[in-house]
Structures are given as structure tokens and as C-alpha cells.
Amino acid sequence: MNISLKHHVGLTPEAWFKKSLFVQLANVGADIDRTINWRDKNTQYSKDAFERVLELLSLTILDPKHKRSTRRELVRTRECLIDYFVYDNVYKTSDKIWHDYFFQFSYAAGLERERRYSQKL
């Protein structure tokens, strides 16, 4: 698969697709937090972080291992994120809602990493 990435130049779709959904969305969530944290300090950094969000989320949507229902939720999530960060927030989300939504994936990715590590011991 030949996809051109602006912000994740060294990342290939194949490498991204090897990651679990938890890890993929934990990475998206890290950039969501950066988008929020930089919004009032440096709008360009915030904008760049949000572009990274969209890049990673688009790659996640393209991941063939995800079922149709998962992809549908990811597309809906992308729509709501764009509404919140770019448009009029018609879905009435907030910084806290987005932080909490993605935190669960970071937590799950941490548990997954811990389980893999403990199996190697």
C-alpha cells in the first residue's frame, strides 16, 4: 500500500497495521492531548498535532484487520473530532470527553504491553 504521509514520514502502513487497535488509538490520543495542550499556547503546534491525529486515524481506518463496525466507529470519531477542533462543535464534545475517550485506549495498550513483558520473563 503506497500512502504518502506528511507528518509521519518514516511510518509505513504495514508497520502501523502490525500495532493493535489499542496502541493505534493510544497514539492518536497522545496527539489529541497535544492538540488540546498547545491550542492556547501555540496555534501552529496545535494545528500540526491535529493533522497528525487525522493522519493516524486515517491509517487506522484503512487497517484491514479492523471489522466494518470498528471502521464505522473510527469514521464517526474522525467526524466528531473535526467538528470539535475545526468547525462548530454541533456534537457538543469537550476537551475532557476527548481526553477520557482516548485515555481508555492508552490504559488498555499499557496493560497489553505489560502482559507481553510478563510473558517474556
Overview of this structure, please?
By secondary structure, the chain is mainly alpha-helical. The protein has one domain. The chain has five helices and no strands. The chain has helices at residues 13-17, 21-38, 43-62, 68-85, 95-120. α2 (21-38) crosses α5 (95-120). It is globular and about 45 Å long. The mean pLDDT is 93.
Task: List the defining traits of the structure above.
single chain, 121 residues, mainly alpha
Structural class comes to mainly alpha
Mean pLDDT: 93
Radius of gyration: 15 Å
Order of helices and strands: HHHHH
Number of domains: 1
Strand content bin: under 5%
Low-confidence stretches: none
What form results from the Cα inertia axes? globular
Query: In percent, how helical is the residue content?
Result: over 70%
What's the N-to-C terminus distance? 36 Å
Say how many strands there are: 0
Quaternary structure type: single chain
Number of helices: 5
Largest sheet: none
Task: Show the helix and strand layout.
Elements (H helix, E strand, L loop, with lengths): L12 H5 L3 H18 L4 H20 L5 H18 L9 H26 L1
Helix pairs in contact: 2-3, 2-5, 3-4
Could you give a quick summary of the protein structure above?
The chain is mostly helical and 121 residues long. The protein has one domain (13-120). It has helices at residues 13-17, 21-38, 43-62, 68-85, 95-120.
